[in-house]
Design brief:
37% helix; seven-stranded antiparallel beta sheet; Uridine Diphospho-n-acetylenolpyruvylglucosamine Reductase, domain 2; alpha+beta; Vanillyl-alcohol Oxidase, Chain A, domain 3; five-stranded antiparallel beta sheet; 18 strands; 542 residues; 22 helices; Uridine Diphospho-n-acetylenolpyruvylglucosamine Reductase, domain 3; homodimer
């Protein structure tokens, strides 16, 4: 049997080893003065066998009790399994894995066979004060899956991964929480439907995880965030099972099910999700791409499009000048049309911005809305460059997550941070983050807007910078802290769709106010009086 | 000075005395065998002077303390003021006023001058365990404003009725909660905007009331319910002020502000609401009206339109065959086009259904969506009858609420009940309610759908029937109870947009489950540990 290493855990998705493409590598080598010699060494490679210092703290009796509930074949207490459920995919977590540090693994990993198993497990753990962390695709980038108090990680993906019902009259699908995106999409595709929710983690995230982390897909501008896509949830909490009806709307006082959208495992275990579904009609989708002269003019066009009430695009995205330049250099956009023409027309590198658009749904609607968008873009001096750049971007949509390993192998820190902000604060926030980041020497910052609303949008920042070798963790932490303040001080939310987890928890009180945090704590205390649900530093809760 | 009577309180809106129009009167006379002699008498007219048995239970010291906070000119303890704040506009409440029964008036009516006044009042009342009921336009039809435990009714409309800020970049408006619909709309109309929220109570309801009762406007199919129209709230609770940011979206864990949407005054006093606003472009709106052969075919067309993703109508409404027949008879639709032609084409009375549509927003969009709707209607054998019937319906949109007084004067019980239901249960629910109602002799039932979603719609029932003279209250109560069960047993929600109040509270546990009600109670206990906020039978809470 092959040795199971830390690297096996830290790798993304299906664990393929990917290479940085030549164009990107060239940019990185230039920006960070990396020599060919440097390329040969692999920084903190993590290819040693996983060994945990901490043994399980569950008693033999407890393990036997848990086996009785879930079946002995569904409980794992070996080192690799526990290590494998110790972290999500946050940059610091990947660093720790590379440094072979797993101080707080779960005591066991359990794969419940059914909703009823989950009920029994939650009851048992609540009685015995054993922490529970519900786990979907492990793609959390907020330290949402760590187990500082040990306990049980619930692997929802092994058995709870089926479509329960597709209702073609209501156009809804009831799905078990542990179903991965592609399996769900494939299932309903065969029936002529699509889920419409495609986050970057789509391939390796679950329906339950989408809800718990309050995610957003690439087409959220048209379809809404997961918040708007679900009509009902079933959740197992220590205070009982919460299940709402699939009414299209209601006024039965205030809704309780939004409490669980973004609850990040702290209130209960989501076992079933009922989602709206759409007709599968990819042939109807229209694509458009534009170059704008400045970020400001691109943002103005975007805002005008969102506030004009002529229908909305589904995918809607602007890259800022830095991201645009790197896209031109690395993604081959400059090969698709004449860079010289663009320059001659005043679309200059360092200022110009790419906009990507798709419009889905009914064929005539997609055509109509695309036409309106083209008109509005033109008014704001957006230069139409056809549908291909958007289509090409979509093709490589899920691949960039694989770049983290080869980049970190090169000693390059790489992470993202994101926020939601109203239009009137957007440019200021973007500028402030840029100013902050560029104080660091040798850094690449790429910013984009990718989820758009009538009253504002998100801002998403991707940064790369050489690690401070030997001081990787602390260097990152300090840099990241400044980033959060740059966002928070400029009226951005702590997150638009990544969530809070343990990473942003320290800012929660400042962000939402003490009164709001107290209310969240009261809700927590009701559903989880013994504090067993994803405990220890989550969401700013006690 | 004119004597102030019970009738002055029970009358709708601006207290005009309205007459039933001749066409409607003719229908009623026929259906209920009412003679001209009967028309002369006025049943339970309520035109005697208001006198309360119960004196205020606030001590002189307490009244002085309250005067110090809000100003002595803003506190009222006279009989008429207290009586005037004893009820909303629910049918049973109107009956009680006609019977001159006000067993539980508030101890005082206070009109706070500012948000800070509200903070001080809530703190004072919390400390002294004095109940508070926040009051907007008093149009509640769910017994949401009664004061079974006395206390203070907060009249939010006198001073807290201003627009605080219109943000034309974000297209949002921050409004004080006590502002009436027309004043708000007029204010933003001048700046080129519209609020898009037009419930039937629009003229006599407030922005804060819309949120607290979780209302829906006539254009909700396009713009959403109030839930979807607000971006931020400021609420004074005994546990502090809760104020969320106006982010377009966020993932700062789960949202707390939806707790107050539908809270019906039980958690705190909403003082400020930030709403999305739209461009004011009435000239762009397109109207369409159709007749369908059956209710089923109209519903099928409606569902297809909502699920086709070609854009949505704003006003979207079907009347069932009975409502359609009465509309033909009373609203003059049969004068607008040839009834004979319709009959010859197979659109027969007793089966045919009217559909009303408007599409707002961008001019080309409105034109485009109307065309698509016409096409879908035609496919489902909908017969296009032009825009005028919809426009005419809109003209009399707010007037029917004035019909309750002259109808009740005639001894006619008249009320409405409404629900939300998924498409797959809609026809069953509609049939079951009809079967139940028509078991009563001498009854008119009119049903319509007026708020439509991808996965379902509301159903709204209006019924008229002669009162059981001498046993008016109990007769109504028994009849109403059966109605609620007919809805609940057929998978309808307890309410789509009227709310729960004290009327539907007894069904809450059955409707939402004990676990959900426990969670609601826990939230209540946090925000309002002394139970001062709108206490006594509200929302099924203790």
């Amino acid at each position: 049997m092959k040795t199971k290493t830390y690297r096996d855990i830290l790798k993304w998705g299906d664990k393929r080893e990917q290479k940085i493409d030549d164009a990107t590598l060239k940019v990185i080598k230039e920006k960070f003065s990396i020599s060919d010699q440097d390329l040969a060494s692999k920084h903190l490679f993590g290819d040693t066998e996983v060994k945990l210092e901490k043994t399980t703290s569950l008693s033999e009796e407890q393990i036997n009790d848990l086996k009785k509930i879930a079946g002995s074949e569904n409980i794992f207490t070996d080192d690799f399994s526990r290590a494998n459920f110790s972290y999500g995919k946050y940059y610091s977590e990947l660093l720790l894995l590379r440094k072979e540090k797993i101080p707080n693994p779960p005591d066991a990993v359990i794969s419940p066979k059914s909703h009823n198993d989950v009920v029994k497990l939650v009851n048992y753990c609540n009685k015995n004060k054993i922490p529970i962390v519900p786990v979907g695709g492990q793609s959390s980038v907020t330290r949402g899956l760590e187990t500082p108090k040990g306990g049980v990680s619930l692997d929802m993906t092994k058995h709870l991964n089926q479509v329960i019902e597709v209702n073609s009259v209501n156009m809804t699908a009831k799905v078990q929480a542990g179903m991965f995106g592609p399996a769900f999409e494939e299932h309903i595709n065969k029936l002529g439907y699509s889920c419409g929710h495609f986050p970057q983690s789509f391939e390796f995230s679950t329906v339950g995880g989408w809800v718990a982390a309050r995610g957003a897909g690439q087409a959220s501008t048209g379809y809404g965030k997961i918040d708007q896509m679900i009509v009902a949830l079933k959740v197992v909490t220590p205070a009982g099972v919460i299940e709402n009806k699939d009414y299209p709307s209601n006024a039965e006082a205030w809704d309780t099910f939004p409490l669980f959208v973004g609850s990040e495992g702290t209130l209960g275990v989501i076992t079933e999700v009922t989602m709206k579904i759409k007709h599968l009609r990819p042939e109807n989708t229209r694509y458009a791409s534009f170059v704008f002269k400045t970020f400001e003019s691109a943002v103005n066009a975007m805002r005008e499009i969102m506030q004009s009430e002529f229908g909305k695009p589904h995918l809607f995205r602007i890259s800022d000048p830095d991201e645009t330049d790197i896209a031109f250099k690395t993604k081959g956009f400059d090969e698709k049309f004449s860079n010289k023409v663009l320059k001659a027309l005043g679309y200059t590198s360092g200022e110009r911005c790419l906009m990507f658009v798709s419009v889905e749904g009914d064929a005539a609607y997609a055509k109509f809305v695309k036409k309106k968008i083209k008109k509005t873009a033109k008014k704001n001096k957006g230069f139409y460059i056809g549908g291909s750049p958007t289509k090409n971007w979509l093709k490589q949509r899920y691949s960039s997550a694989y770049m983290r390993e080869p980049l970190m192998d090169l000693g390059i820190m790489t992470d993202t941070i994101e926020t939601a902000v109203t239009w009137d604060n957007l440019i200021n926030l973007w500028k402030s983050v840029r100013t902050y980041v560029y104080k660091r020497q040798k850094v690449v910052l790429m910013s984009h807007i990718s989820h758009v609303y009538e009253n504002g949008a998100n801002l998403y920042f991707t940064f790369l910078s050489p690690m401070e070798i030997g001081n990787e963790e602390d260097d990152y932490k300090q840099f990241h802290k400044g980033l959060v303040y740059a966002i928070h001080n400029n009226k951005g939310s702590l997150s638009h769709h990544h969530g809070i987890g343990r990473v942003l928890a320290p800012w929660m009180k400042d962000a939402v106010s003490e009164e709001v945090l107290n209310a969240m704590q009261a809700v927590k205390n009701h559903f989880d009086p013994n504090g067993i649900m994803n405990p220890g530093g989550m969401l700013g809760l006690k």
